[in-house]
């Protein structure tokens, strides 16, 4: 067979080889561009995506007043968004294997991590207005669901009310935290004992004052930055309110 006859066949072979190389190159580039983006069905579920898009610390409405939510209410309103599906490494609710090593660290360590934040979880799960006792109740609730034996801090009760006398406990909290602003009226805080400044605030009632103070208002952070119990914080609010009546 002459060279003239073989030439068209060689050209076809060369073209096919070029097309194959182009296809392989495109496939390799596509793999490189999408590496690290393997899709996990659980992570990309409608519920999981909604939970990630949900603002940090957003809570489901509850009839309980500030500081009085149970561990279950806090879990359902705040913690569920991550612990329900195990997002970002959070141990799933009721998963004894995942919670076992954490429960073994002890109550104090669990609470410390929840209060200050740990790994991908922000402090208090991102819910700045969550009281320390509410957070502890949620820790106990989740830990116990996975085999722990923790005791939730009580919600209200005569014992807690008696221990938080405004004239004693409230004064102590005021002098340790609140006085920094309320003594001088810094950052717009109503001065201690100033009836004119406190009058419109007292019109809300103690429950209204407590709700505002727990969430933070204007320049004041949630609970005025106080990290103690709800009963102690309430006593401080009552102490301030009583000073201006």
TrEMBL record:
Ranges for the Cytochrome c domain? 66-146, 165-244
- UniProt entry keywords in alphabetical sequence: Electron transport, Heme, Iron, Membrane, Metal-binding, Transmembrane, Transmembrane helix, Transport
Please name the taxonomic classification of the source: Bacteria, Pseudomonadati, Pseudomonadota, Betaproteobacteria, Neisseriales
One Pfam family named in its UniProt record? Cytochrome_CBB3
Q: Which residues cross the membrane?
A: 12-30
Q: What species is this protein from?
A: Vogesella fluminis
The organism's superkingdom is given as: Bacteria
UniProt protein name: Cytochrome c
């Amino acid at each position: 067979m002459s060279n003239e006859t073989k030439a068209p066949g060689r050209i076809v072979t060369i073209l096919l080889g070029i097309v194959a190389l182009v296809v392989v190159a495109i496939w390799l580039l596509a793999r490189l561009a999408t590496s690290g983006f393997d899709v996990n069905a659980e992570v990309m579920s409608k519920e999981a995506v909604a939970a990630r898009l949900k603002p940090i610390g957003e809570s489901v409405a509850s009839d309980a007043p500030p500081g009085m939510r149970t561990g279950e209410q806090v879990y359902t309103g705040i913690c569920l968004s991550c612990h329900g599906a195990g997002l970002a490494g959070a141990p799933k609710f009721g998963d004894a294997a995942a919670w076992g090593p954490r429960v073994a660290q002890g109550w104090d360590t669990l609470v410390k991590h929840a209060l200050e934040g740990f790994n991908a979880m922000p402090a208090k799960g991102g819910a700045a207005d969550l009281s320390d006792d509410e957070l502890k109740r949620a820790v106990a609730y989740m830990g116990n669901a996975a085999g722990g034996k923790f005791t939730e801090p009580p919600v209200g009760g005569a014992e807690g009310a008696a221990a938080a006398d405004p004239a004693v406990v409230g004064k102590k909290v005021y002098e340790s935290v609140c006085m920094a602003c309320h003594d001088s009226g810094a950052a717009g805080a109503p001065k201690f004992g100033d009836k004119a400044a406190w009058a419109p605030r007292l019109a809300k009632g103690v429950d209204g004052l407590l709700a505002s103070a727990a969430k933070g208002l204007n320049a004041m952070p949630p609970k005025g930055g106080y990290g103690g119990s709800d009963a102690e914080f309430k006593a401080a609010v009552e102490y301030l309110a009583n000073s201006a009546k």
